[in-house]
Amino acid sequence: MKRLYRDLFPWLKLLLRRRQRFLVGALLVWVTLLAGLSLLGLSGWFIVSCALAGIALTAGLPSSLDVYVPGGGIRFFALLRTIARYVERLYNHNTVLTLLADLRYRVFGDLTRLDDASLKQRRASEWLSRLTADIDNLDNLYLRLLIPPVAALLTILMVSAFIAIWLPVVGAVVAVVLTLLWAVVTLGYGWLGFANSYQQVSDQEELRRLVLDQVQASAELLSYQTSIWHRQKVQQHEAKALGNQRRLAMKSAVGNAFVSAVTGLLLLATLWIGSFALSSGQVSGPILVMAVIAVLGINEVLGLLPAAFLKLGSSYAAAQRLNALKANDSAWDIAELPDGAGGHAIQLDNVDYCYPGAIHPALVNLQVMLPAQKRAVISGVSGAGKSTLASLIMGRVAPTQGAISVAEVSPLHISPESRAEHFALLTQQTDLFDGTLEANLRIAKPDAAEEELWQVLSMVALERWVKQQPKQLLTHVGEKGQQLSGGQARRVALARLMLRNPTVVLLDEPFAGVDADTARHLAGALDRWLGCRTAIFLLHQVDDVTLLPGVEYRWRLDGGRLFTDTTVES
Fold first, then answer.
1. Between the CA atoms of 157, 162, 165 and 168, what dihedral angle is there, to the nearest 10 degrees?
2. Model pLDDT for residues 524-553, shown as the tens digit of each residue
3. I want to staple 342 with a disulfide (CB 3.0 to 4.6 A). Which of 92, 167, 464, 532 is the partner?
4. Residue 365 belongs to what H/E stretch?
5. Pairing of strands 346-353, 401-406
6. Has this prediction a pTM greater than 0.90?
């Protein structure tokens, strides 16, 4: 229980930020329930009173009944129930949407602070699942596990107190039995369905992963004639998840039956005890009927709780998964890089890096000193560790051993704002968003003038091609730039980077996917743009030294170690 509270507490704190809205929502739920029970009870009293008055008149006995007051009460409670239910649904729906926005904002903030190593541990679909499915599971925590049981308990106490006015013994019995039933349903069913609903979160994520693999790798599966085999894997997992879902549904059905049985027995007990009060003249028949109907109406109040509390495990699993993001969150310092017109010096001192779970380190004992405003090239075969080194310098991952400094400050201790201002990295993977060319460029500089956009497009030899397109800057690039060729998409990414004004620039394979003439054009544009900035070129191999003007330092990565490259002539 202590661990459960500890893991759920960060998300309960978000609730407290909007506690007034949730208190109002709970009050509206309570008013709706009471209005419904009052309508049932008063209607029962009125019907029985009319029947008894009719029987008396038929028997020739004097009888009178004021139909206006109870009739007006029935209409009042009917109208109150309708209005309260409408307002409650509208208000709580708005509250939940606001809460979901708060949750997604926090989780998205946690995701943006994760380093590369943490991000690469899971697929993009799994991170998306954190922002969607896990947050929706937490929605159950607020909407079904907090408000309904509180409103139900208050309703039980109110109904019991009302019955106790005329039937004290019945009121006491109703209060004790229904309170115990409430405790059993909430606490007992939270425990009973915990394991199944906890497993349900993993089942759903695994099923989404398998289906996504089926869609993304459909061409490969068809080429190897293994589509049927993969579909069978999906079906097997789906059958397993369905079995777990059926067990939850069965427990929910048993819970509803249990609630109905207990309330039914309580109804009989109320009739039995009330009959003695009726025979002794302590209470009238209409009052007894009203009490019976009120007890019967409690069944509707408690009926939703078993299914809701069976989902406690899924809410807890979602909270654990989201807490893991916070646990991996780096403690950002407030260090700021100095504002200088030139670049900043980069130094690596005995730096090692080993990927989690790897046997051998990717980088070993790196000793590098690149002075400010200088350019270097680091070459190496695929898998030599160039991209890993770039992530280390950018502060996206922490070294396993050793220290890295930029302008005598560790990249890990630089604030995100300062890091975004001073660092720029062109990665091997081209990340373009599904939108227009202009929108993708403005990611780097939202307030960039149109002339600036055309200028950087000219620098990457794309200006002529863009002007030939019917929509020019409004040309749609597609998801991940799939409407462009590989070389064009990469040049768009480079143009986007050139809209920035960084002091440290890392370029991972900047000439990949382009012909020789375009590569020379890019080299000249980069030479002018880099100016006095500190720059590192990360290349598979140096085929043409003319593509690297101004480079004074040449190193080679081999086996995770860094050597001076003596194979290239200046």
1. -40
2. 888 888 888 888 888 877 766 777 887 888
3. 532
4. strand 363-370
5. antiparallel
6. no
Q: Which residues pair with 534 in a beta bridge?
A: 504
Show the beta-strand stretches assigned E in 256-374: 346-353, 363-370
DSSP run (H or E) holding 377: strand 375-379
pLDDT at residue 65 in the model: 63
Q: Which of 382, 435, 415, 426 is nearest to 558 (CA)?
A: 382
- Give the pLDDT confidence score for residue 570 in this predicted structure: 45
Q: What is the rounded CA–CA span in Å between residue 40 and residue 376?
A: 83
Place of tokens 């799939």: 482
Residue 313 token pair = 């495990």
Bridge partners (DSSP) of residue 222 are: none
For 550, left (φ over 0), alpha (ψ -120 to 50), or beta? left
Answer whether 197's CB lies under 8 Å from 314's CB. yes
Token digits for 106?
A: 């926090």
**What amino acid is encoded at 536 in this protein?**
I
Residue 426 β-bridge partners = 507
Residue 177 backbone dihedrals phi, psi, to 5 degrees: -65, -45
Q: Residue 211 burial (CB < 10 Å; 0-12/13-18/19+)?
A: middle
Residues found in the chain: 570
H/E stretch holding 562 reads: strand 561-564
CA distance 290 to 423: 74
Asked if 562 and 369 count as a contact pair (C-beta separation under 8 A), the reply is no
Residue (of 391, 418, 396) closest to 407 by Cα position: 418
Q: Residue 469 carries which DSSP code?
A: S
Q: What whole-number distance in Å separates Cα of residue 304 and Cα of residue 185?
A: 10
Residue ranges of domains in the chain, CATH in brackets:
17-327 (1.20.1560.10), 346-564 (3.40.50.300)
* Closest to 273 (Cα-Cα) out of 179, 172, 181, 182: 172
Radius of gyration of the chain (CA): 35
Question: Which residues touch 69 (CB under 8 Å, ≥6 apart)?
Answer: none
* 440 close to 432: Cβ distance less than 8 angstroms: yes
Confidence label for 57 from pLDDT (cuts 50, 70 and 90) = low
* Angle at CA of residue 60, ends 59 and 63, nearest 5°: 100
Of the candidates 357, 321, 332, the one whose C-alpha atom is nearest the C-alpha of residue 132 is 321
Q: Which residue has the tokens 């190593």?
A: 117
Greatest mean pLDDT among 2-16, 82-96, 505-519 lies in 82-96
pLDDT of residue 20: 79
